[in-house]
Design a protein that fits this description.
By secondary structure, the protein is an alpha/beta fold. Helices cover 41% and strands 14% of the residues. It has two domains: 247 residues, Type I PLP-dependent aspartate aminotransferase-like (Major domain) (Aspartate Aminotransferase, domain 2); 140 residues, Alpha-Beta Complex (Aspartate Aminotransferase, domain 1), CATH 3.90.1150.10. The chain is built from 15 helices and twelve strands. The strands form two sheets. The protein has a seven-stranded mixed β-sheet, with helices on both faces. A five-stranded mixed β-sheet has the order 8-9-12-11-10. Helix 11 packs parallel to helix 15. The structure holds pyridoxal-5'-phosphate. The site of pyridoxal-5'-phosphate (PLP) has 14 residues, from helix 4.
Length: 407
Amino acid sequence: MIEPPVHAPHREHGVRPETEAVRTQITRSHLREHSSPLYLTSSFVFDDAEEMAAAFAGDVDREIYSRFTNPNVEELADKMRVLEGAEAGHAVATGMAAVFATFGALLSAGDHVVAFRSVFGSTHRLLTDVLPRLGIECTYVGTSDPEAWRDAVRPETRMLFVETPTNPGLDIVDLEPLGALARERELVLVVDNSFATPVLQRPIEFGADVVVHSATKYVDGQGRVMGGTVVGRRERIEEIYAFCRASGPSLSPFNAWVLSKSLETLHLRMERHCTNAARLACELATFGHVEALRYPFLDSHPHHEVARRQMSGGGGLLTFRLPGGLEQGRRFLDAVSLCSLTANLGDTRTIVTHPASTTHAKLTEEDRLAVGITPGLVRISVGLEDVQDIVLDVLNALERSRMSRRA
Ligand SMILES: Cc1ncc(COP(=O)(O)O)c(C=O)c1O
């Protein structure tokens, strides 16, 4: 777990989080590198038994073993802590490791979680299949309506869990009333902020206690490495860190190094993801031939008012439904030439996916429909290519998928 570094002279100048993300560097050796060195080591040495015992007792701030933490992991965690405006942070191997460590550390047998119905497929699996085996129950709520959340809370409820915007439905959850409910009922509000990133949305400002990320997405932003982060209230992060230290979902120093450098350009990349996605959304709205077009900042999005209140940009993802269902969805994927067909998102390269046959394939048809995943749903993670090329490729593919239906 990372505490704020003792020596952080740039902070004394009261700089903005974006500047801190660029300048924060807690991994610098005696050589005084300008760019952080990579600490590719599993363990760290001690001068004598006393120093080693003090390190294990937590009496001195020393690195011990890379399963616990590592300077590169600490640097990444600290940058995320700063960007999210959190008290403490830790970084782990994947986004799912971050989600599971949060559940594993903060919940016990007999506890109950209230979660938003539309969550990432693997998170849904943990809540539906894994946690019940550990004696932890989950109730899903399908709306932001605070009364529905209040009704779902029981005496044994410990946690509220939401993702916003959601994957892949792009639902927006109003965080402020959930933060208020969490305070009132002494619950932990956990927010998966992978889609918005702290550049567009800072859930702690709305009352979140813990913010989790799949750093594999926009934090890396170039489809290279996996990673996850958890930031939030110090006591909660200490519990999560202790769980991770024992259970071992450690982030590789190399991945942490890549992700930490990536954070220095996150705000620039997010700006471009947003402008490209907003433009594609407008072009699709004009072009027509798609149903249920969703982009959080389009006025037609059912939660666009909350999105505009809570987020500073609409993000890089949009979804729509093809009237020709599964078949047209497949034809569309086969017709794109610039866009990639791959499972990831948040990449520099535009990616098209078909959730019903991939990320959410393990859900039942009923569960898929409950979160808006119809057979023809297509998700586009809009990249950083020239927007005219993206628009041309998507509209051409749409036209071709329609024409082959008519043929
Ligand atoms: C919102 C969200 N949370 C968590 C995850 C899991 O992240 P990872 O693949 O890094 O484990 C994903 C992956 O797509 C996601 O979209």
